[in-house]
Amino acid sequence: MNVTPVSFLWRLTFLHFFVISVALWISGWAMYNTACFLAAGVGNLDELRQQQFNQTLLNYVWLFVMIAIVVASILYFYLSKRLLNPIRELMEATQLLKNGEYPDLIPVSRNDEIGQLVQQYNQLIAQLNRNEVDRKKLVSDISHEFRTPLSNLNGYLSALKSGDIQGDQELFVALYQESQRLTSMLHQFDQLKQWDYTTSNSYNHKEIQAVKPLLEQCVSMFRWTLKQAGIQLELQVETADVYVHTEGIQQVISNLLDNAIQYYKGKGPIRITGQKQNNGYYIGVSGPSEPIPDREKERIFQRFYRLESSRSRDTGGAGLGLAITKEIIDQHGGSIQVETTAIENTFWVWLPCQ
Predict the structure, then answer these.
(1) For residues 12 and 3, what is the distance between their CA atoms, to the nearest angstrom?
(2) pTM
(3) Number of folded domains that form the chain
(4) How far apart are CA 350 and CA 354, in angstroms?
(5) Which ranges carry the HAMP domain (predicted)?
(6) Same domain, yes or no, for 348 and 223?
(7) Phi then psi for 199, rounded to 5 degrees?
(8) Residue 347 burial by CB count (10 A; 0-12/13-18/19+): exposed, middle or buried?
(9) What strand order describes the sheet that includes 233-237?
(10) Is 71 contained in some domain?
């Protein structure tokens, strides 16, 4: 059975009314009998005057008891109502939340347990609001990302079907690349889903790894790409052991190295450095590139964010690589940041040493 705050308050008031009444009745009865006994023992009263005294005293006792019960009940009702107001507001807000609406935050005017409960509830509502904003943005971004390649594919296929254009090798390569980009984005979505939750099975499979061979293995996968692009690579890594998810860290280095190659601009090599400091290990990936403005250094790790509108999807990808990288590093209890000079950008990854 559902109990509203009002009915609960009345039931609680009647309960305390009963308890207070019993307590005052017992106290009044005890005081009355004590007073009568003392008056009979110390006073020289005849029987009639003694009876009058007893009756008058009894009337006053009953009067005081009734006044005390009424005053105590009213005071208790008022204080209890004030005490239960936040709970009533919580129930109303929870009902709105149950109906799919996001209620306003509840004002906090107390520092007791109920006040702390309201604060925790407000934090929950604020987090749900942020999640809803992120969800809507994610859906909008996904729709935006898929709309262009799907429109391109649909347009070309419709033209081929109607005979408006003739297929050739160049067109088929372009269509294949567009489909591959869609496949790549879907793969990145799967990676984000994998690393979004700390309870992921993949995240639990961590092990002690030597950093140097791990980085060397990542670099070896890009040797041919670097050679074709005419980019030199320098690897300067100190030996150390870290407790990591191997595939996750490989993906981090691959994303950062791929990012350095995509946005390579200028002269000089791409450098990968590694050094142990205090209780952590720093991995740096540096490369010549256009400087990243200070105001953008945090936003580049957001999903679907591209640094510039001029960096199209063809050159800049879907804007998920750095978001995946940050998610993996966060799951390891580490951090990632970017440092910029006039000619070079450096991404620093810090991992705790175990």
Answers:
(1) 12
(2) 0.54
(3) 2
(4) 13
(5) 81-133
(6) yes
(7) -90, 5
(8) buried
(9) 233-237, 270-277, 280-288, 344-352, 335-340
(10) yes
